[in-house]
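Appendix C reproduces, verbatim, an entry submitted by the partner laboratory led by Prof. M.T., so that reviewers can inspect both the input and the predicted structure.
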Amino acid sequence: MTPNQAEHRRIRAQNRLKHARDVGDGGRLGAEFRSYFRNVSVKVDSAYREFGRNIEPTLAVEYANLVNLFEVDRSEITMWRIPKRSKGFRTITALTQISRMRQRIIKEAISCGFSLESHLYLAKGRGRDREALAIQAAGGEGFIFGYQADIENAFASARVISFLCNTPLPQSVILANLYYAQRHYEPDYRKEVLQGYDSHDWYHDRTQSMEGHKGLIQGAASSSHIFALLFNDMADSISPNVRLFVFGDDVLLLAKDQSECAAAAQSLGRYMLAHPAGPFHLIGSEVNFRTGFDRLGYRFKRDWRSGDVEIGLCRAAWMDRLSKLAGLADMNLRLGAHPCSGGRVALRNFGRGYPALTNLDEVRADLLFCMGESAVERRREQGIPQR
């Protein structure tokens, strides 16, 4: 089976899932889910996408035969906890390639078999940047008071079996692939480098205990879609006059009146505590466009003169980009080149990562200026004469 043949057959199977979803027949949708998870062409297509389209067809079939979504995935899971800048930890999960194949198949089946409401932005065809533009539009319409919250320990504490058992998804697939056992993290002080996080103590765990079915594998392809599905009805718990934005475990409420926003936040808290996959706990605070607030790499603030909502870079994203440019400038000075040499090239594609920025040219100019200033200051502190 060639890559093109596998892809076409996978698309046909996904279209059957979408049709069953649109018809609204739960029994038929459940049958299509089971058929999709057993479909050899879907597995072969996932093998080509994971290992490359240039692998031999016989090898792709061999990899596909290793995937049985109805049996427990006992392959090794490596998890790291990276300290956040503020508090708590960010979990990074490393799966084997076969596990990633399984997760991709489940993720695409869920995206085809369920319709996600408009307030959920961690979904196919939406994303962080579309959410940023929607927040900007809401602020321009007068929704200037907000409440921003994070769902505490969201992925690890979700009891998804109590929720998903009432959906057409096969329960055996849920139990075999979507859970991870509660794991014990031990500190590792070797300071090894992991994706640039060499400045932190990192934690890892390779235990294979399958006990304690609770939580989702944070970082796995299917987990974000499952998590979004849990909160598909969240908008029903608050007033229709309040705008709701959900991206993973980050929640934002916007209202025209401060008291209405506070009431919506209380209603949302009760909804989270009573959730069938919970209880979930919100940790948040009030925000507004007048003083500005950060969300997912962007900073939102309303210009008091024009009334327009500006989208800029949040401080953390700014400092992260500046630290990389400062390193480039320092290297230029050591080589006797202009400190900003290569800076414009490095920032040329910068806007692709933040397409919702309203002041992209200004951000580029400021970063270039700070790049040169920081490099010169660093050389001055080291007592090295400038060339």
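The mean pLDDT is 79. Additional entries are available on request from the coordinating office.
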